RNA polymerase sigma-54 factor
Amino acid sequence: MKFGQQLSQQQKQVQKLAMTQTLQQSIQMLHYNTEDLFKFLESKALENPLLDVKITRDYAEPTYKSRGYQGDDQEELNYLNQIPDNQTSLFEHLVEQIHLNYRDTYLRQLVFFLVEYIDVNGYLTITLEDMMSQTGAEYLQALDALTLLQQLEPAGVGARDLQECLMLQIERDESAPSMAYIVIEEHFEDFAHRRWEKIAKDYQISVSEIQKISDYIQLLTPNPGAGYGEVLSQTIYPDIIVKVNDHQEIEVLSTKSGKPTVAFQSSYFERMAQVEDPEVQEYLNEKKAEFEWLKRSVEQRGDTILNVGTEIVKRQKSFFLDHSAPLVPMKLKEIAEVLNVHESTVSRAVNGKYLQTDAGTFELRSFFTTGLSQGDDSQGDVSADSVQKEIARIIAEEDKRKPLSDQKIVSLLKEKDIEISRRTVAKYRDILAIPSSTKRKRFD
């Protein structure tokens, strides 16, 4: 047997996408929200003397000034400086109150010790026994320190469990129902599990009075310290504005207010262009090309967001004409096919980008909702959003003395040609923060 080897040359043409650095940066720019885009352009401006980053503002918006500049002409506040600082933390708030209200004694030192063991929700995470072991304090001293701590604001701080947290808040509220404190103190488990008939019998009161106590408890906070140390609300500048005229015609506009733009430093370029140095000329040409690329990329980013937003508005037209209307099922892939772009491009264009309407500002991503298949004989899929709204409507109209079970809601939805399982109803109730039928029952 002979083995032979033949060599031949073939020409093959293969199309590949080369992910250059500039292409990667262009893709990343579409993913950036307004703040991230500004940071990116600012970093480029530090490397490129021909590049200037500006923020466009509507004439109606206030001019932000720097408080640190003491000259006659105050400088305009940097865009990132407009992001508010954090609020005072719970720890700082408590320490300040201790300094103001309590004299410098050994007992105050014990209160400071306890503050170190307050978590972000305002609860005490150390037992009095452990405190006594670490500090050498006597039991009555530890108890007095805890009492002083629990007298501080916010009401409920320093509690060791939810029951004590509620009792501390009730104790300070003169408008609390007369039986609220004792019910929570002596029958907390029965109250939480809605064994109200037993409580009513023990105290010889009506169940409707227990219902009033329950309504009041709902107004209290289970996490008294959660509101401290959070970042204050930041201004959101919408990327798109949707307007509806008197003829029910929808107009989709791109907004430049609050958005960073790039400008060319022509005076610097012209001055440096007169320098007869090949290296300087090469440097200028390189930086000018970078500016032109950044300008095109920023404009392309805006155009992509506008095109995606326009198609979203087109498909969700009923919602923009009537904000109570449910969203129709819509997927990223459908928008991508219409615009002839990749699905990932649409995903980047909707994350962190906002659309403003008369009813408020919405993230573009929120308009995408999955559809629930209704079988071959149905008129089409219904959106999860529309089903959730229908469930919320049914529960809102139910008799609160005889609330509907999840299975009964399934039956009512089926009458409207919406077929979903009981488990799905329970899932949507959780999303809508609607409790189960046993917890929705009222006795007044």
